[in-house]
Specification:
Elements lengths: L4 E5 L6 H15 L6 E5 L2 H11 L5 E4 L16 H6 L4 E4 L2 H7 L3 H14 L2 E6 L3 H5 L3 H12 L5 H4 L3 E4 L13 H17 L10 E5 L7 H5 L6 E4 L6 H12 L2
Parallel strand pairs: 1-2, 1-8, 2-3, 3-4, 4-5, 5-6, 6-7, 7-8
Helix pairs in contact: 1-2, 5-7, 7-9
The protein binds phosphoenolpyruvate.
Phosphoenolpyruvate (PEP) binds next to strand 8.
Length: 253
């Protein structure tokens, strides 16, 4: 069984100095943490400095987004090769803020996943429904469509290197988390769909994280569910004590 994975998505927050301070505190706190994998996703501008701090520590480094091309005339974009160059071994792909604010599509997500696979970067692919879709009873069909287009064309080996983050859009940054029951229902659906329709291995399995207003008050209840393999944490990952409390609840569910 793989360890739970807890990812801190810092979004567009923290200048270099406070980013390094938070990363250093996490490295110090996690030096003897066992039974959990922890990754942080700082903004691009602090990635290099933070990478110098996490180097040699158990703390992993993720990009929040990248362009699916390796180089070229794409003003304002960042290549995954550049993220790898500064020490990233993971990247978020298709976060709902990328989808809703920057027009990211499932087809674009698919291109990025293939690019990440080719570079040996572990893709953390975000899926989830809006409140309107949930209220219309379209939660599972929405997720099915995101997965079927987003994960097209992966080899059996690549399918073993994928992490899914189920993040209901209505729960991100709102303070309203999905209940453990709601999350378990969707995670079960995702697992079944990946195995039965997309040919994922049942034996190897795929890690499915939950994200959406995870905090120290709800993390224990969520992470004790065996269907929930970890958490993608936004706001609460910017606070050392909150993030460490969430990490601890993944270790001792
Ligand atoms: C996120 O950024 O993926 C997220 C889940 O944010 P928050 O924890 O703030 O809801």
């Amino acid at each position: 069984m793989t360890n739970p994975l807890v990812i801190g998505n810092w979004k567009m927050n923290l200048l270099t100095a406070p980013a390094c301070e938070l990363a250093q505190s996490l490295v110090d706190r996690l030096s003897d943490a066992r039974g959990v994998e922890v990754v942080i996703a700082p903004p691009f501008t602090s990635l290099y400095s933070v990478s110098q701090i996490v180097k040699g520590s158990p703390l992993g480094l993720a990009g929040q987004n990248f362009h699916y091309k390796s180089a070229g005339a794409y003003t304002g974009e960042v290549a995954l090769e550049m993220l790898k160059d500064v020490g990233c071994n993971f990247s978020l792909i298709g976060h709902s803020e990328r989808r809703s604010l920057f027009g990211e599509t499932d087809e674009g997500v698919n291109k990025k996943i293939h690019h990440a696979m080719g570079l040996g970067i572990l893709p953390i692919v975000c899926v989830g429904e809006t409140l309107e879709q949930r209220n219309a009873g379209e939660t599972l069909t929405t997720i099915e469509s995101q997965l079927s287009i987003g994960l097209t064309g992966l080899s059996p080996e690549e399918k073993t290197r994928l992490v899914i983050a189920y993040e209901p859009v209505w729960a991100i940054g709102t303070g309203v988390n999905a209940t453990p029951e709601q999350v378990v229902d969707v995670h079960k659906f995702i697992r079944k769909y990946l195995i039965e329709s997309l040919g994922f291995s049942e034996e190897i399995g795929v890690r499915i994280l939950y994200g959406g207003s995870v905090n120290p008050e709800n993390s224990k209840q969520l992470l004790k569910e065996k269907e929930i393999d970890g958490a993608l944490v936004g706001g609460a990952s910017l606070n050392l004590e909150s993030f460490c409390a969430i990490i601890n609840s993944a270790i001792e569910p």
